[in-house]
Amino acid sequence: MEHVISSSPDYSVYGLVMHADPVVKGVLILLVLASVAVWAIILEKIVRLRRLNMSIGRLERAVHQAPDPGDRLVGSVLAATKHEDGADQRGESVAELRDFRERAMRSALKSELRRLEFGLPLLATIGSAAPFVGLFGTVWGIVNSFTAIAQQKDTSLAVVAPGIAEALIATAIGLAAAIPAVVAYNQISVSLGRAYARGSAAILELARRPIGVQTDEPVQLRAGKRF
């Protein structure tokens, strides 16, 4: 009796994976690695988006008070106006100078936001490709299952079920990798869009300052130097 129990097949998820076809195992390993990459990107973006929202808040406050000298985004945006604020020597009108300042600050803001876009293409790729990779593993496993049925000439459920279960695990892991990737990609894209809208509104107010007033003068008063 003990020998029969010890040699009975293992129908747990781990047992089915360990007895799967090498191709199916390769697909499962690839999908697990993709899932790990997705969650690593998600955690990294959560931290960086929180910092971004704090920086955008400081940029909004810079409209009415001295900017934070230690904030990278605020410093980059305000530093972008240095060249344009001295452009009155070229004979441009006040409206043109303000337009130049606004465009320079928007360009600096976009450059900072692009830094946060790293990893988004990978999320989009995993979100769209992972289900199909899992489906490939499932189809391959089912083909092998039916081949084994033909060789054993036995169509009982005990013979068919384990092979199909092994195959379906690939689809499940593919969906487990794809769903968080799609949700995270959409949420991060929306968050970046909202941050850009808030930053653009603050930049519009900063660009309306008198041309003779440097946008980083409050920084000189607080930090003693320019960005």
SSE blueprint and pairings:
Blueprint: H1 2-6, H2 13-18, H3 22-61, H4 72-79, H5 82-85, H6 94-114, H7 120-152, H8 157-207, H9 217-223
Summarize the structure.
Helix content is 77%, strand content 0%.
Strand content: under 5%
The percentage helix is over 70%
Q: What is the number of beta strands?
A: 0
Biggest sheet descriptor: none
Q: How many helical elements?
A: 9
Question: Taking Cα atoms only, what radius of gyration do you get, to the nearest Å?
Answer: 29 Å
Overview of this protein structure:
With 227 residues, the chain is mainly alpha-helical. The chain has one domain (22-222). The chain is 77% helix and 0% strand. It contains 9 helices and no strands. Helix 3 (22-61) runs antiparallel to helix 7 and helix 7 packs antiparallel against helix 8. The longest helix is centred in the C-terminal third of the chain and has 51 residues, at 157-207. The protein is rod-shaped.
Provide key terms for this protein:
mainly alpha, single chain, disordered C terminus
